[in-house]
Specification:
Blueprint lengths: L2 E3 L12 E2 L5 E2 L2 H11 L4 H4 L1 H5 L10 H6 L1 H8 E3 L2 E14 L8 E14 L2 E12 L7 E11 L2
């Protein structure tokens, strides 16, 4: 269930708040191939199914940056902040890829609010998103996403 904050200021003091898990998402070869086309990263481990079967993972795997980019899909399922004029994605900290995402597997995001601070006339928060792989003890990746919310005028 999405955690809702009616204003950015409502985030203040919420450090340590755990956010519920998102829905599962299936990672299929078409998604991986599309990401390869967009990024021009056609390394065989991602796109050559026959060769990858003989490789270290027994099949193709998603690009690490594909997995990380899907955090943007998971964030609105984890947290919704309302009551701002505009918001910006400031960036990310502490990105780590811990386990490969095999094509055909399912992933989801779980979150935690790490920091909240007032900065440059806005409220800035960092949410740690852990991308879990169904059936795996190790997550695919962990990243701290940083968002800045500017108040309504």
């Amino acid at each position: 269930m999405t955690k809702i904050y009616n204003t950015p200021a409502a985030l203040i003091g919420q450090e340590g708040t755990k956010l519920d898990a998102t829905d599962w998402m299936q990672i299929d070869q078409d998604r991986v191939n599309g990401f390869a086309d967009v990024t021009e990263d056609h390394q065989w481990i991602h796109v050559d199914e026959a060769r990858a079967k003989e490789g270290p993972f027994g099949g193709t795997i998603a690009h690490g940056y594909l997995t990380m980019s899907l955090v943007n899909h998971f964030l609105p399922q984890l947290i919704e902040v309302r009551g701002f004029a505009h918001a910006v994605n400031v960036g990310a900290d502490r990105l780590r890829f811990l386990a490969p995402v095999k094509v055909g597997s399912r992933i989801r995001g779980v979150g935690e609010i790490i920091t909240v601070e007032e900065i440059k006339g806005a409220i800035q928060s960092a949410v740690r998103v852990t991308v879990e792989i169904d059936g795996s003890e190790k997550p695919a990746c962990i990243v701290d996403t940083i968002s800045r919310y500017f108040p309504e005028e």
